Amino acid sequence: MVLEKNFSPVRVLIIDDDYFVRDALEMFFQNRGCFCSASPSAEEGLKQMQAQSFNIVVCDYRLPGLDGLSFFRRIRDWKQKPVKILISAYGHPKLAQEAVNIGVDTYFQKPFADGQIEMALNRLIETINSHDLSMS
């Protein structure tokens, strides 16, 4: 699947303690023209969100310190309303349901294929672009 949009204005925050996953996701988004910022912990991710805004936040579930669900709970009522993507190697139906309940837009279980991310990105970026157009 080929991405049809130019993603240059899209800002992505990636939070994962696994360097290889973080690096792979960062390369994936950068290759599609996105601005990326990466963090090994949810606490650092919170600091980055306080300093700048993001359109998309990809966060791992299991992290040292604050986990991904707790991170998304903390940003739920913030003025910034990024698209939220939770990733996890420890998936189970309860986790997916809890993620939906706190406003996570998409959930991927590791390992995931690029095709899954591309499809979700196309859908989510369309949502972001539609929202931005309606705000102008």
Q: Multimeric state of these chains?
A: single chain
- For the CA atoms, what is the radius of gyration? 14 Å
Give me the secondary-structure category: alpha/beta
Structural shape: globular
Tally of helical segments: 5
Q: Poorly predicted ranges (pLDDT <50, ≥5 residues)? A: none
Relevant terms:
alpha/beta, five-stranded parallel sheet, globular, 136 residues, 5 helices, single chain, Rossmann fold
Concise structural overview:
With 136 residues, this protein is of the alpha/beta class. It has 5 helices and 5 strands; from the N terminus they run βαβαβαβαβα.
Structure overview:
- It is a single chain.
- Helix content is 45%, strand content 18%.
- With 136 residues, it is an alpha/beta fold.
- It has one domain (11-135): Response regulator (Rossmann fold), CATH 3.40.50.
- Strands 2-1-3-4-5 form a five-stranded parallel beta sheet, with helices on both faces.
- The longest helix has 22 residues, at 114-135.
- The chain starts with 10 loop residues before the first strand and ends with a helix.
